[in-house]
Amino acid sequence: MSLQLTNWNQFHMKQVPERRHGEEPLKAIKLRAFGGPETLICEEIALPSMGQGEVLVKIACCGVCHLDLILRSGMRSRVSLPRVLGHELAGEVVATGLGVNGFAAGDRVTVFNFQACGECADCLRGRPSLCRFTKGDIGQTRDGGYAEYAVLDAANLVRLPDGMAMEEACFAACVYGPPYKAIRKIGDIQPGHAVVITGASGGLGLAAIQIVNALGGRAIAITGSPGKVQLLKEKGASDVVVSPDGNFGEDVRALTDGRGVDLVVELTGSPTFAGTLRSLAPGGRCAVIGELHGTPVSVNLGLLIIKELRIEGVQSASRGELREILDFMHANGIKPEIWRRMPLAEAAEAHRQLHKRGAVGRILLVP
Ligand SMILES: [Zn+2]
Ligand SMILES: [Zn+2]
Q1: What CATH number does the domain containing 205 carry?
Q2: Could you read off the pLDDT of 184-211 as tens digits, one per residue?
Q3: What is the pLDDT of residues 77-88, one digit of tens each?
Q4: What HEC string does 283-297 produce?
Q5: Counting ligands in written order, which one lies closest to the CA of residue 176?
Q6: Ligand 2 centre from 126 Cα, in Å?
Q7: What whole-number percentage of the chain has pLDDT above 90?
Q8: Do 261 and 341 have their domain in common?
Q9: What is the C-alpha separation between 111 and 222, in angstroms, rounded?
Q10: CA distances (Å), origin 243, targets 3, 64, 248, 251
Q11: Burial zone of 97 (CB within 10 Å; 0-12 exposed, 13-18 middle, 19+ buried)
Q12: Ligand 1 mean position to 65 CA, how many Å?
């Protein structure tokens, strides 16, 4: 049963008193000034008000993303303060505002974090990440998941498959979205296809290895660090090429009887792009998800023509694709590796830990 409410006072009277027992106030991490991790202070919040088309979600967990570190530092101008960070969230619908159809109290949801307009030509052709009338992102221009509750636009919610854990689903959009789009939509990877993954030991790289394996493909992981070989093999890479200089093309060709691979999932960009081009088989595709340095690269267009290569950028999966990803993860038993679960109040420490980059796997904040 969903509560049709226009403001939080009504909701407060009907639902929240139990939460108020023992003077336990609602908490959120509200960023009030850009800076170091110390700017993430846990404070008591007023209950957020819920408008037309919006849904109140009780947050079960929220991932801490490298993007959050950048946003906190103030390097992204779109963030307006004060702001509750966090786009990797999952939780349970508590109440729905007027005009919300398709969601009801008790629904378990995660978010498609991009707030596209839903009406422009790009949105209507299923490319919301290209929307020029965007209202920004959850955790940037709208309060996100570093809180006990969030009010979210119903248009951003996606229901979880039955039986899927919240702490797995919360990473579906940000961690699994881009590699899924690269591997299934651009690569159309089938059993037996070979895929090179650059920067393979990062979160998206490990997710890419899982997706390729679930499809019966062969994941060839590229890393700059010999210390990551064992990890990548344990995580399911068929082969690992250590290439500190990014010239791994000949190694990949040797591993594929000289043919090259069907797809490169390019997670590092310019540092590895020469090796990437050299790795592609005739008709091969390159999905560019990451670019570390912003350095221009050179492309021999003759090679593109003769081998009929495709190079395509990937920003994010769409909301429809997110539904597919959740089903795909659940059906194939794909689980993100969770390195640490921390209470909401330790958000600053979570940012410090992530900055040290010692973690393999994700950090979760649990209210
Ligand atoms: Zn993220
Ligand atoms: Zn749009």
Answers
A1: 3.90.180.10
A2: 999 999 999 999 999 999 999 999 999 9
A3: 789 899 999 999
A4: EEEEEECCCCCCCCC
A5: 1
A6: 9
A7: 85
A8: no
A9: 31
A10: 57, 29, 6, 9
A11: buried
A12: 4
